[in-house]
Write a structure and sequence with these properties.
Elements: H1 2-55, H2 66-80, E1 83-89, H3 94-105, H4 107-116, E2 117-123, H5 131-135, E3 148-152, E4 158-163, E5 168-169, E6 172-173, H6 175-184
Parallel strand pairs: 1-2
Antiparallel strand pairs: 1-3, 3-4, 5-6
Helix pairs in contact: 3-4, 4-6
């Protein structure tokens, strides 16, 4: 009887083991199937972002002489009594393009910008990193997120550097936060 019980136990164990072994590849397939849609979803999101980026205005000019442009803006700011808002980034940056488009197409925000600032897009890209210009206001090597904003007074003196992530809301920007930033020249 002991031999029979032992054989039955071993037989059942072998069957149970073989079923676990057989089900393991199915689990692997299930896990792989879960990964594929995630990659497809990521690819689809990248495709949508590329399509969005293609439609947005490209305000950055990699060929511009940024220092000469800023010097002209300072002279103009003195005459008009406005501050200068420099948006640092590039045409490669979807968030940079989104911010520019958001401000330009939201009448309330555009009115504030036009009233208070001279608005400049300072290019940072492989074509033109504008390292000397950036070095006057920030340490570029420490800067990791684009866009960011450099607010200058009418004499060209740096007042504030503002990171943009605090202004974000989902896949865009918060109208209330951007409005507060534009009115105060900073948001903490």
């Amino acid at each position: 009887m002991k031999k029979l019980t032992l054989l039955a136990f071993l037989g059942l164990s072998a069957v149970a083991f073989s079923q676990n072994t057989k089900s393991e590849p199915d689990n692997v397939k299930e896990k792989t199937a879960l990964i594929v849609p995630t990659n497809q979803a990521e690819l689809e999101a990248k495709k949508k972002a590329a399509e969005e980026k293609a439609k947005l205005p490209k305000p950055y000019d990699p060929k511009a002489d940024a220092q000469a442009d800023i010097n002209k803006l300072v002279a103009q700011a003195k005459k008009e009594g406005k501050n200068i808002m420099i948006q640092a980034g590039g045409n490669w940056c979807i968030w940079c393009l989104r911010f520019n488009n958001f401000v330009q197409t939201t009448p309330e925000l555009k009115e504030i910008v036009d009233k208070k600032y001279l608005y400049y897009h300072l290019n940072y890209s492989p074509d033109n990193k504008n390292e000397k210009v950036f070095a006057q206001y920030i340490n570029v090597k420490e800067q990791q997120f684009y866009p960011f904003f450099i607010i200058l007074d009418k004499n060209g003196k740096k007042i504030h550097v503002q990171q943009s992530e605090i202004l974000e809301d989902g896949k865009g920007y918060s109208k209330e936060k951007v409005k507060e930033f534009l009115e105060k020249g900073k948001i903490l």
